[in-house]
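re: that chain from earlier
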Amino acid sequence: MKRVHRWATAVSLTVAAALVVAGCGTTGGANNSAATSGTSNAAAAGTAFVAYAGSLQLANDQYVGPAFTRATGIRYQGQGNGAFAQAQLIASKEVTPNVFMSIGTAPIQVIDPKFTTWSVGFASSPIVIAYSPQSPYASQLSAIAKGKEPLTKLFSLMEQPNFHLGRTDPNIDPQGQAFIFMLRLAEQELHLQKGTAQKILGSVNNPKQIFSETSILSRLQAGQLDASSAYLPEAVERKLPYITLPNTINLGDPADASLYATQSLSLAGGKVAKGAPIEVYISALKGTPDSAAGEAFVKFVLSPAAQTLYKQQGYTLTKPLLFGTQSDIPAPIAQEIAKLKTR
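^ sequence. v structure.
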């Protein structure tokens, strides 16, 4: 697929998807069993089965999914995992969701064109450093978060041999890639000592630091980690203390897209990831059960009601970004996108 418009003029949305397979990932929240509630609707049928990036779990399962069911009478089911891992499961038909929500468009390209040829981006989600109040480094991290200590001290702390840092697998999760890009950008933009990013990471695939996206913050809350990569909405939703990062390194500002693009990362299998703004994209999938229910969910996500919920959960709403073939977008969704552009 190719980008139809540049960031300033495009329209796009993604929903990152996920599933628990062979102990990988976790199913989403109390609504995973797809219970119905709210107003019945003669046209309501089937289930909106949403496969999403694990970072969307709380927002989707606790807020947006239930609101969708109340508004339409259509059942909701959500499952989360690393976006690339989820895309591979969809491609192999191990899971058959009718909606995919991703961080960035690269995971969506894994299932193009068999399952979709388009996606819409609607919100950004910068990287932050969440930390544990139980950590022996908590007072120092808190001082940095409050601006009482320079941000550069954060990276000195993360270099310490006894500092337990958590991040996700860059081979299957965009957050894992973004965290590495952030460290490399920080070394460059904050004028840190050369080699700082390497010292903090150890290696790109350091097993001592890598955890699944759906479990990493639970480990942090349990005091098993001192600090962890996180998207801002995740930290807000879980009421975790966190350290904000400048736009030049947090990958959350589309205006800095050209700076982020200076970073690249070689992945398993010979693939190369490039730095890009962290944007949530969504697409309704074809050739899967209950496709009408999936389209109804995408339409709802772009509505004022759902947009408000995502904003309340810490997401920054962006102008819609269109990725792929615009003419393939179902008419009701295209109409909602048109409305979104004028809000």
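The chain has two domains: 12-125+278-342, 127-274.
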